Amino acid sequence: MYGGDEVSAIVLDLGSHTCKAGYAGEDAPKAVFPSVVGAIDQMDVEDTENNAASADSKSNANPLDSEKGKGKRKLYVGSQTLGFHRDNMEVLSPLKDGIVVDWDMVDSIWDHAFRQLLMECLLIDPKEHPLLLAEPSSNIQLQRERTAELMFEKYQVPALFLAKNAVLTSFASGRATSLVVDSGGGSTTVAPVHDGYVIQKAVASSPIGGEFLTDCLMKSLESKGLTIKPRYSFKRKEIRPGEFQTVDVDFPNTTKSYKLYCQRIIASDIKECVCRAPDTPYDEAAYLNIPMTSYELPDGQTIEIGADRFKIPDILFNPSLAQTIPGMESFAEVAPSVRGLPQMVIESINRCDVDIRRELFSSILLAGGTASMQQLKERLEKDLLEESPQAARVKVLASGNSTERRFSVWIGGSILASLGSFQQMWFSKSEYEEHGPSYIQRKCP
């Protein structure tokens, strides 16, 4: 048993879009930053070291943000560091479909999270705090063992627990059994949870998440001749009091991925501000004369957005809509195999035992950043009522607070790790030394 009552555990949730970290028992994470990493090849760094630009970047670099030279790469983590333009910097994600593809990057993200928490509370040492890590419902054994190895060997944590995202979301809403619809940045996953365990055979997932919708919106705006200027590519000069002129700034060594990252931040904000799920399936003719909504871009130009406000969110319900957007034709190859949200929910429930289906229908939980979209809960409930068996009482639940929806996995971890009854569940360092990393499968089912 790990005596963790006096020392609060650290809860870490590395999502496909953002990384959340904080202390168990608190109601929101202390550190939230993008889970992408800026990487510059050391060769490029040496070339630009002599430039005045690199001197400038040093003076502006924030000591909070991680800068790590890994072999031939220099890695930059944190929204402040990524917001600063650097020549030849690629923006890469260490995760693909929730699975880690680059451990160096994940390592630098965890490093940054611990450093952020250290800054908040200088009297702590990560070696004294047990760590609860959220993981995707479909995580594989190899990944779990590698994680345990890194945490015990490198960070020297005294105890560790890996908990499934869906289970934590369920706990955050005070339920042991529910159907969790988690729509995040990289994908949407539907996972049934029964008595605190995920029913693996019934997990359904789709590659349509917040980032896919953001890309669809960007392509749709581009097809209408509207281009989003990244923040680094212009300066605003005051020509008369209250009147500004936009002056373009040229950075020839900007990588495609960095430009796309900066454009996505703006497009994502447009999506969050103006988009809402339509009450009925999207129909081109019906939305032809819809009133426009205006949005002011950072460079001062105002754009008008019409039918896209409803068309983009409806892709969650009808994935084939994405093919109608110019520039998204490549999606056509995978489109037939991608199901909409209501179909995924029904398919997932049908794979579970008959005895618990009724209970799952009546406690469908919406979670994740994309789930915070206006009218999404009402539309999903309406579609499910039409498609589910008549005997089923369909109830879609979502926290009224969008912060709680966005951080529901982290909040569930915070509740779980602070429970007195949970303290004997930890996978301790002594058990790791005795049984090795494969023991994590028994300790964290």
Automatic annotation (TrEMBL):
Record-level GO BP terms: chromatin organization
Transmembrane parts of this sequence: none
Entry's Gene Ontology cellular component terms: cytoplasm; nucleus
Region entry Disordered, spans: 48-71
UniProt entry tagged with the keyword NAD: no
Pfam families: Actin (PF00022)
Chief location category: cytoplasm
Alphabetic keyword roster: Chromatin regulator, Cytoplasm, Developmental protein, Nucleus
CDD domains: ASKHA_NBD_Arp4_ACTL6-like
Low complexity: bias regions: 50-62
Family: Belongs to the actin family. ARP4 subfamily.
Role description: Involved in several developmental processes including organization of plant organs, flowering time, anther development, flower senescence and fertility, probably by regulating the chromatin structure.
Protein name (database record): Actin-related protein 4
UniProt organism field: Tripterygium wilfordii
